[in-house]
Amino acid sequence: MSKRLLSTASLLALTAASPAFAQDGTEPVALDEVVVTAARTETPRSAIPATVQLIDAGEIVTQTALGASAVDLVATLSPSFSPTRQKLSGSGETLRGRSPLYLVDGVPQSTPLRDDSRDGYTIDPFFIDRVEVIFGSNAIQGIGATGGVVNYVTAAPGRNADGWDGRLLAQTSVDDSVFGDSLGWKLAAIGGRDFGDWDLTLGAAREDRGAFYDGEDRRIGMDGAQGEIQDSSSWSVFAKAGFEPSAGRRLELWVNHFELEGDGDYVTVPGDRATGVPTTSARGTPPGIQPLNDVTSAALTWRDRNVLGGTFRAQLFAHDYEGVFGGGTFGTFQDPAIAPRGTLFDQSANNSEKLGFKLDWERLVDPVPGLRLLAGLDGLRDTTFQALVLTDRMWVPETTYESLAPFVQLNQRLLDGRLNLSGGVRHESATLIVDDFTTLASYGSQQVDGGEPSFEETLYNVGATFELVDGLTAYGSFAQGFSMADVGRVLRGIDIPGQDVDTFLDVSPVISDNTEIGLEYRRGPFQASAAAFRSESDRGALLVMVGGVYEVQRQATKIEGLEVTARYDVTDALRVGGAYSHLDGRTDMDGDGALDSDLDGANIAPDRLLLWGEMDRGDFSLRLQGQHLFERSFDGGDPRNDFDGYTLLDAVGVWRASFGDVSLGVQNLLDEQYVSYFSDTQAPTDNGRFFAGRGRTLTLGVTRRF
Fold first, then answer.
1. More exposed terminus of the chain, fewer Cβ within 10 Å: N or C?
2. Dihedrals φ, ψ of 276, to 5°?
3. Which fold has domain 2-155+165-589+603-705?
4. Is the separation of the CB atoms in 52 and 23 below 8 Å?
5. DSSP, res 489
6. Can you tell me whether residue 255 is helix, strand or coil?
7. Per-residue pLDDT tens for 218-273?
């Protein structure tokens, strides 16, 4: 449920947790007991003026009972998040019309220097305790959050001193009409123990996914180039260890490894957009290495609550990522020196290695009652390259991004806490380091001189909240976020002789200004919120189809929207709620300074209505949830890309038996036949990527606690 909390550079907040759908046996958590770690400040939730949504443990269990991935959790429950492509690539999946920054316990998962949009699949949802979604452009966690922040908070440390406790999961999924190759399964376990001064948590998960079928029982087409979720296998391990030498001090180390790889059992069969026949798949073996994500993240964190009268936090983190894409005899890959033109098969792998640190110190300023100070310093080194793996050629040269960013945030409490003022500043100092390189033969084998272009950018935020009457709070804020504009795509495509990185490459960041006003009401069994926002960028970064390939273009953009949420606890056993989002986005396609065209489906989500109801009757629970995506046309775009909209309904039932919780999830309960939003609004002549969405799918699971 959306909470109106966070002003961008305010950094760690107490927020509200909507009561969990208690199928996992956990009790609802009181609002002010939950800390939003992605926000990095301990300012009370009533003092921070923007939007945070907390997806708690119960909601995660409910969605994973439907077979949801980590990114599906967010897309299903957040109305202004784009519907997922149901593919390994998340290209075009936006939050409020801009790219979100994915984090795992504060560690960035993105690859901004060569954005391949695979960052939604880096952790198994079984290891996630909650998801923190911070809406709107912000600089809380540094580069990448022009649309917001999605922080996956991992399992809490073991607290049982008498032995190990945890969960075991066995799950299977199948299309309701086509069994056979649609069958998938998952096994997972996680457990922890408290050994006194230190604690340990360990987890492992393995999942095999079958083929997906649409509402008309046709096998859904494979995206051989970008990668697939269907017909894939994944495995993941997770470990967390903590040491507490004294009260208020904790040292914690965690490591997560996630690997997902296609099984390679099918080849794509083109559809026919003109007649509405979607792309399908047939048995076959695609050539080359199968697409995969191979990700390892780790962080070492120290927290001390008694440093110069305040709390000091330090985190060192590392992130190692490889994403392999499917191959082909694409024109870009051709080199007559290796093979006759048109016959050379190759495929690429994107690689990114991050090292970074985050330091912050927070305390009350004693001479000024109600004033809280947060100061810190962030550092990041990100090295990225994209190689052609079969011929050992470099497509995107090794590129290193180095940055240091000091920041300060103030929060002033007035009128006994009814009025809260906040403001802050973050200064980003960054350098891009590129050595001399040679482009591929298809670009003319251009010799490009390296360089070290840099930028300095200062980002601001300011906001206020005011409790009008008991339970009703109004707020307003302005905050800035920034990102890079996929410099890898620019570097690899240089086809003009005599270029050098210092003069050719524009490293000026994408700066987005987010303005937001809203109201939140919480009293008794009823909760509601409404927020209106505007996000503007003089030089945004848009996905634009050029010659059959998406390129990033710098264009002015403006996005305006409205989000409304409501929840009513009818009785202790019955809850209902819903959310609605409306988005309008315009851009300057011809560079004349006027916002003359609508943002297309690759850059903005459709308007969406979410409705849900939950019933909990002792040993049995039931949740029904529906979403309606409204039709959308695009002024200035191809009318063949207009979106007709569709409605989906899901159901999850849970029986709490003596041996464990038995769940049955039914995705697309009415077996609706539809084409995914991204496929329906892009490339109107491409019959190879006209992908339908999944039809009715059953997921049966058993969870046992120990």
1. C
2. 80, 15
3. Maltoporin; Chain A (2.40.170)
4. no
5. H
6. strand
7. 999 999 999 999 999 999 999 999 999 999 999 999 999 999 999 999 999 999 99
Return the C-alpha torsion angle 663, 667, 671, 675, nearest 10: -170
- The CB density around residue 482, as the number of other CB atoms within 10 Å, is 24
Residue 89 has phi, psi (to 5 degrees) of -80, 135
Query: What one-character-per-residue DSSP string does 429-477 give?
Result: EEEEEE--EE--GGGT--EEB-B--EEEEEEEEEEEEEEEETTEEEEEE
Would you say 48 and 10 are in contact if contact means Cβ atoms under 8 Å apart? yes
Distance CA 544, CA 430 (A): 27
> In the predicted model, is pLDDT for residue 10 greater than 60?
no
Report pLDDT digits (tens) over 420-455: 999 999 999 999 999 999 999 999 999 999 999 999
Backbone angles phi, psi at 55, to 5 degrees: -100, 110
Q: Mean pLDDT check: name the lowest of 177-191, 506-520, 531-545, 633-647.
A: 531-545
Please report, for residues 119, 214, 250, 307, the alpha-carbon distance to residue 66 in angstroms, rounded to integers and kept in the order given. Answer: 21, 16, 36, 46
With H, G, I as helix, E, B as strand and everything else as coil, classify residue 97.
coil
Task: Give the tokens for residue 403.
Answer: 């940055």
pLDDT attached to residue 42: 77
CB 626 within 8 A of CB 611: yes
The separation between the first and the last C-alpha atoms of the chain, rounded to the nearest angstrom, is: 30
Q: How confident is the model at residue 360 (pLDDT cuts 50, 70, 90)?
A: very high
Bridge partners for 565 per DSSP: 529, 579
- SS in 3 state form for 554-579? EEEEEEEEEEEEEEEECCCCEEEEEE
Q: Could you tell me the residue ranges of all domains in the chain?
A: 2-155+165-589+603-705
Q: DSSP string covering 583-594, please?
A: EEEEE-SSSSSS
CA-nearest of 121, 110, 104, 113 to 147 is 110
Contact (Cβ atoms closer than 8 angstroms) between residue 251 and residue 243: yes
Please give the Cα distance from 508 to 512 (Å, whole number): 12
Averaged pLDDT for residues 679-696: 94
Query: Which residues are paired to 534 by β-bridges?
Result: 515, 560
Answer yes or no: is pLDDT of 472 > 50.
yes
**Residues 610, 491: Cα–Cα separation, whole Å:** 42
Could you give the CA distance from residue 295 to residue 260 in angstroms, rounded to a whole number?
A: 9
Residue matched to tokens 């509402």? 215
Residues in the chain, overall count = 706
Identity of the residue numbered 25: G
Count of beta carbons in the 10 Å neighbourhood of residue 334 = 18
Q: What percent of the chain has pLDDT over 90?
A: 81
pLDDT (tens digit, 9 = 90+) per residue, 640-676? 999 999 999 999 999 999 999 999 999 999 999 999 9
What element of type H or E holds 103? strand 100-104
